[in-house]
Design a protein that fits this description.
49% of the residues lie in helices and 11% in strands. The chain is α/β, with parallel strands linked by helices. The protein has a 5-stranded mixed β-sheet. The two termini are 21 Å apart.
């Protein structure tokens, strides 16, 4: 029965709906508070198991950490990505938030309860390595004014001033789905299996968790490896420290948004659009140096940003785009990535954040730190293709009864 209660508490968008489902579908009356308590308790058990796994992984010799575990077959293509979501944390006891457990407690963002959770996505994919770029010409949708204007607006939603243009944005509706329209000329890698990671720990502590999960699946022994993300420093710090052997890929959609904004800065659309077209074609081909040179020239024409310039001024917009491309130049070899059969957008990662948000994010949803950590872990288990909770229940039953649990028939 515990497994049914936890499933209802995690798969629904609230404990109230979980309780209602148990009554309707299982004909069992489980009060909302009991669904919450059981879910939290089991989630804490899973968090403890995760912590033990991370500790064991970190104790391994470096050679073993970079190999596949015994009995695990490494995938042909392993892809890792991570991003941040949002949820509300409230200490109902009125105590001050522990800075170690909630380092972003005073992050200056709107809403004193909003915090960041960390979401990781590990995917095995299938694709071919080719002799040349399978799609040297940029797809039509990336040079379609109507679509690009819509995309730019979506990427600007909830953008924070003084931060990179697309950090903390709403998930764009254009990405892998858009590229899929051009499957006649280029097929994005086919996703085979997914595993998820969710936590409220600090970014420095999230890296080891993500690395442990990648090792468990044999990712470090994969012949092809990729790490993809937007321009957040947190993403690339994790890449440098734990996934430096993986090909680093900056999400093409986020790079596009900077290029578009800079091309339009201080100019009429009729003037800026041809510039954008030229720059985005260069970017698609991986000729980032040409875009950087053009942006540097545009910056000279406009002048260096001053203290009097607002965040949306043409000078600031071009300066941000120039810095963004310079900082990530080595992560934008898109023609080479397509030839190697690697993904070039982080839409799957952003979709993962959205799937977690459906359970934990809401103006009326408030979590304790312990409760948030428990539900994030269980949500990750619930979404993962390998169904780790099935093994958890079997192992838990065996530990409590001392008997081997019967496995379900395949």
């Amino acid at each position: 029965m515990l497994d049914k209660i936890v499933y209802a508490g995690v798969s629904n968008s609230s404990f109230q709906l979980g309780s209602a489902d148990l009554l309707k579908l299982a004909e069992v009356c489980v009060p909302v508070k009991q669904v919450e308590r059981v879910t939290k308790r089991i989630g804490q058990e899973r968090v403890a198991q995760r912590a033990a796994s991370v500790k064991a992984y970190q104790a391994l010799p470096l050679v073993e950490r970079k190999a596949a575990p015994v009995g695990v077959t490494a995938p042909d293509l392993a892809v890792v990505g991570c991003d941040g979501g949002r949820l509300q944390i409230l200490d109902r006891r009125g105590a001050k938030v522990d800075a170690e457990k909630a380092p972003d407690a005073q992050d200056g963002r709107a809403g004193q309860h909003w915090r960041e959770d960390k979401i990781g996505l590990l995917q095995t994919m299938k694709s071919e390595v080719l002799a040349s770029d399978p799609c040297p010409e940029i797809p039509e949708q990336f040079v379609d004014p109507t679509r690009i204007i819509k995309l730019a607006r979506e990427l600007k939603k909830q953008a924070l001033p003084s931060e990179e243009a697309v950090k903390e944005t709403a998930e764009p509706e254009v990405g892998v789905e858009t590229l899929a329209e051009n499957r006649a000329v280029w097929e994005p890698p086919e996703v085979q299996e997914k595993r998820f990671v969710g936590s409220r720990v600090r970014w420095p502590d999230f890296g080891p968790i993500l690395a442990t999960m990648a090792w468990t699946w044999g990712f470090f022994a994969a012949p092809r490896q990729a790490f993809i993300g937007d321009g957040s420093d947190n993403n690339w710090t994790i890449w440098r420290q734990y996934f430096s052997s993986f090909v680093p890929i900056l999400d093409f959609i986020h790079a596009l948004s900077y290029v578009f904004a800079a091309a339009m800065a201080g100019q009429a659309f009729a003037v800026g659009w041809p510039i954008y077209e030229q720059w985005i074609r260069w970017l698609w081909s991986g000729d980032v140096a040409k875009v950087i040179a053009a942006l540097a020239q545009r910056q000279l024409e406009l002048g260096t940003p001053t203290q009097a310039d607002g965040e949306t001024s043409p000078r600031q917009t071009v300066a941000r785009a120039l810095a963004y491309l310079q900082n990530h130049q080595e992560q934008m070899r898109y023609a080479e990535y397509r030839r190697l059969g690697l993904p070039i957008t982080s839409s799957y990662v952003e979709s993962a954040v959205k799937q977690f948000n459906q359970r934990v994010k809401g103006t009326e949803k408030f979590w304790s730190e312990d409760g948030a950590e428990a539900i994030l872990q269980l949500r990750a288990d619930h979404l993962s293709d390998d169904e780790p909770l099935e093994q958890f229940w079997q192992t838990r039953q065996q530990a409590q009864t001392g008997q081997r649990a019967y496995r379900q028939a395949a």
